[in-house]
Amino acid sequence: MYENRNFNRWRRHPWHGLRARADGAPEDIVQVYIEMTPADVVKYEVDKNSGFLMVDRPQRTTSSPPALYGFIPRTYCGEEVAKRCPHADVADHDPLDICVYSERHITRADIILNARVVGGIQMIDGGEADDKIVAILEGDNIWGDVNDISDLPPIKAERLQHYFSTYKMQPDKELDIKVDFVYGREEALKVIAAAEKDYWDNFEHLHAQARAEEG
Description:
single chain; Inorganic Pyrophosphatase; two-stranded antiparallel ribbon
């Protein structure tokens, strides 16, 4: 039973099996795997081994993410991402996070979508670079023409900053989180490129092994 162990033929791993961009897509349109919606007050994230969405922790506060929250496949925050953050020596060793605004309420996670990159927030968590890219759902009827974070109402970035500065609050634990620097589209694209390089520097062997197993 279960002679073929290559389960990826039925469901691709959201981090390793999907792509950062569809074939022929412009550099500012990325594919996003969504882990959380604005209705969630439980922190969900993908299990790195299985690829399934798991409960990480219930949020202690009533704060919920002000945008769809997930990551860009085949990215990794490592040495190259850390180089782009002057106040961090290392990055958080996770896929690159992204927040996506949509005028329509998307009420479920564990989905993929295409989004236009417009900027980002340089988050430093415990001395580690943990950037949050900001994007707009591709084809959105209200925000679809936005090309840079400066085109959005400032409150959009402010709410993200507030959420990420408080979402790890715990009793008797002092937070060391900085979310002071908001950057535009051009820097966001450079951060994504750095995260893509970090990914292939660290995980090229996985793809080589998969190609070899497929014959």
